[in-house]
Amino acid sequence: MNAFLATVRRDLLLALRRKSEVLTAVFFFVIVTSLFPLGIGPEPVLLKKIAPGILWVAALLATLLGLPRLFSADHVDGTLEQMALSPSPLGLLVAGKILAHWLLCGLPLVLLAPILGLQFDLDASTLGILTLALLLGTPLLSLIGAIGAALTLGVRGGGVLLALLVLPLYIPALIFGAGAVEAHSAGLGAGGHLSLLAAMLALAGFFAPWATTAALRIALE
Amino acid sequence: MTARKLLRAGFGHNWTMLNVSGLACSRGERRLFTDVGFSLDPGEWLHVQGENGAGKTSLMRLLVGLSPADAGEIRWRNEPTPSAEFRRDLIYLGHHAAVKEDLTPLENLLLAAALDGVGLDETKALAALVRLGLRGREDLPVRVLSAGQKRRVLLARLLTRPAVIWVLDEAFNALDVAAVRLLGDLIAEHLATGGMAVLTSHQPLPVPGGKALVL
Asked: Which residues of A touch B95 (CB under 8 A)?
């Protein structure tokens, strides 16, 4: 468990020394979600309708932006090799790296979503559901993305391949995440959607670190 | 903790600590080597020699368990590797720098130890860096250090992480004369406390004794 926390601390420290890499993804999210209200114009009904979809798609793409770096830097300088040979289980260290990725690329999006949602004229309870859906959904994006990042590690043009591999796997998260907000707006209640998101998160939390570890061992051969 | 303490479990048996037999490796269609075998006991070291491309690095990676062998068996404490016990007893330093450029040498050592689940306090880490001739460099980012100094940061792990077997691939590269002598001393000390080492190098090594394996 200490090794897990040490990995999180290490990746956060490294991100702190290279702030620009983290800020890129966050600013991408802010700018993309701001472009839509500006482009579509002041039509509150339309904006309200498209808001969940746009915020979710922007969150998917912003998460994707940080994924290629998840393992590549450690792979290039050989620290990933050291992790694979460490007495600590590689799965534990990988889980720590995924958590650090979410804290850097996912959590800021969750915290910004209520503010950015205001641009779409969403009311307070809808903003609450949107934030809650993102809170359950963004860790799921990091977990699934880590498998893709490990599979494309060291592949030339891996960034594009990673997007092609991972984006289709993000579809369930997108459907239920955006669906939760729409269901709430329609007065149906978001409970079912959120429960499904939480179930997917639990499943991915269990299997994704294991699958990522297996993919990393192949990439290191 | 010295290698001797880690070794205690291994005494009183009739098997050798490290036993490699019938190892074969190919890269694509090309056979690199077949039927490589050797064994090491506490206090012994192996010098792996061979031309460029003979498969020295491949042998090292097979040995530590980073890549699978085509054939053959590697046994550590009479158990097939890779085992959790082997990973606890092993330090592998390869061609890579394996240090984070944005962190300082001290942070690198402390975090590497934390990741390995090995306790390391700052005093001990600083002492290791001083021994490696990095006094006054412990708080600079590794990025500003020279290639040889980066190598020394990595080699400091030999002092901060207790292990029985050191697998060092071209560890003498980029080191100056004093550092080569120092690393020779470190290896000799390690062997004297019952440790083992497997080294590759093109130069004759300043460590007495040892077995040789030519690929």
From this structure: 78
